[in-house]
């Protein structure tokens, strides 16, 4: 115990008056009430904030890939998101006939405990409708004498076929040139979509399959987009690079060759096949 110095005068005992006692009592009550007010929030504290989650949809993914990824992100049984398309009331263009392919916009989407398959699909389609409804896109579709939905279809092909972003404008030009001349598009990407695969190996038998997505046998655009394009592919579809090209082939990564000469295209394809064989033998 620490004693006070001896020169400190003794303290007087203070006896509160009746009024003073009343003030002390009231103060004590208020102090207790204040303490209770502090305790209540502690006792009723909100649960910890939910950890944010996201779903990333890459450019070019098909609807089937989006459905699988969404089911996983939502922790739902496989097939839940695909089945939700019928009840999600999606604001798709009439041309889509209820099929959201091409309108599941590539982006990063927040996922919370309240997110449902229907709300997630609406978020994606709302984003696509907003982006694809921009003035420059509708004007670009008109200048190319196609609808916005057809422009999305072209962009989907560009997204699937272009080896690099810099090639997108040239691929788009090949698509437009072939459409303008009434030529079949002859795009392997449409065959891959019909056959639910992704490959560089297309056989003569593949080009004979009976499918509206067989752009070797059928002229014009496929009936729907073949994937969900990003903004770069859409920009290329609207404003393709000027050029006469009708053919292209990616001979090696980063080496896509464009030409309007069929004989040159055949030589390029032969080089592509030779490189593939050499790589296989190595």
Word description of this protein:
The chain has 282 residues and is mainly alpha-helical. It folds into 2 domains: 80 residues, no CATH class; 134 residues, no CATH class. It is 46% helix and 7% strand. The strands form 2 sheets. The protein has a two-stranded antiparallel sheet with strand order 1-2. Strands 3-4 form a two-stranded antiparallel sheet. A hairpin with a 2-residue loop joins strand 3 and strand 4. Helix 6 packs across helix 7, helix 6 crosses helix 9 and helix 7 crosses helix 9. The longest helix is centred in the first third of the chain and has 26 residues. The radius of gyration is 34 Å and the shape is globular. It starts with 17 loop residues before the first helix and ends with a helix. 29% of the residues are buried. The N terminus is likely disordered.
Q: What's the story with the biggest beta sheet? A: 2 strands, antiparallel
Order of strands, widest sheet: 1-2
Secondary structure: helix percent: 40-55%
Structural class: mainly alpha
- What characteristic shape results from the CA principal axes? globular
pLDDT under 50 segments (min length 5)?
A: 1-46
Strand content: 5-15%
Helix count, DSSP H or I runs of 4 or more residues: 10
Roughly how many Å apart are the termini?
Answer: 90 Å
Total domain modules: 2
Gyration radius from CA atoms, angstroms: 34 Å
Count of individual beta strands: 4
Layout of helices and strands:
Blueprint: H1 18-43, E1 53-56, H2 63-74, H3 80-84, E2 108-111, H4 117-132, H5 135-143, H6 148-161, H7 168-181, H8 188-194, H9 231-238, E3 247-252, E4 255-259, H10 262-281
Antiparallel strand pairs: 1-2, 3-4
Helix pairs in contact: 6-7, 6-9, 7-9
């Amino acid at each position: 115990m620490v004693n006070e110095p001896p020169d400190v005068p003794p303290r007087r005992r203070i006896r509160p008056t009746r009024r003073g006692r009343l003030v002390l009592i009231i103060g004590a009550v208020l102090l207790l009430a204040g303490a209770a007010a502090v305790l209540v929030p502690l006792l009723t504290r909100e649960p910890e904030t939910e950890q944010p989650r996201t779903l990333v949809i890459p450019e070019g993914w098909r609807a089937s890939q989006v459905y699988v990824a969404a089911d996983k992100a939502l922790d739902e049984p496989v097939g839940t998101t695909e089945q939700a398309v019928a009840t999600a009331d999606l604001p798709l263009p009439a041309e889509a006939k209820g099929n959201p392919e091409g309108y599941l916009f590539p982006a990063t989407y927040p996922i919370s405990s309240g997110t449902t398959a229907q709300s997630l699909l609406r978020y994606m389609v709302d984003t696509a409708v907003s982006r694809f409804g921009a003035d420059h896109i509708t004007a670009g579709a008109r200048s190319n004498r196609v609808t916005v939905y057809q422009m999305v279809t072209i962009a989907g092909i560009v997204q699937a076929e272009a080896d690099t972003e810099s090639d997108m404008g040239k691929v788009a030009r090949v698509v437009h040139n072939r459409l303008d001349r009434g030529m079949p598009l002859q795009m392997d990407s449409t065959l891959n979509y019909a056959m639910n695969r992704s490959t560089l190996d297309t056989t003569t038998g593949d080009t004979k399959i009976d499918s509206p997505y067989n752009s070797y046998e059928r002229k014009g655009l496929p009936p729907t987009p073949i994937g969900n394009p990003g903004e770069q592919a859409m920009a290329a579809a609207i404003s393709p690079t000027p050029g006469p090209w009708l053919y292209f082939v990616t001979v090696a990564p980063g080496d896509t060759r464009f030409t309007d000469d069929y004989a040159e295209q055949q030589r390029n394809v032969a080089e592509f096949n030779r490189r593939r064989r050499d790589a296989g033998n190595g």
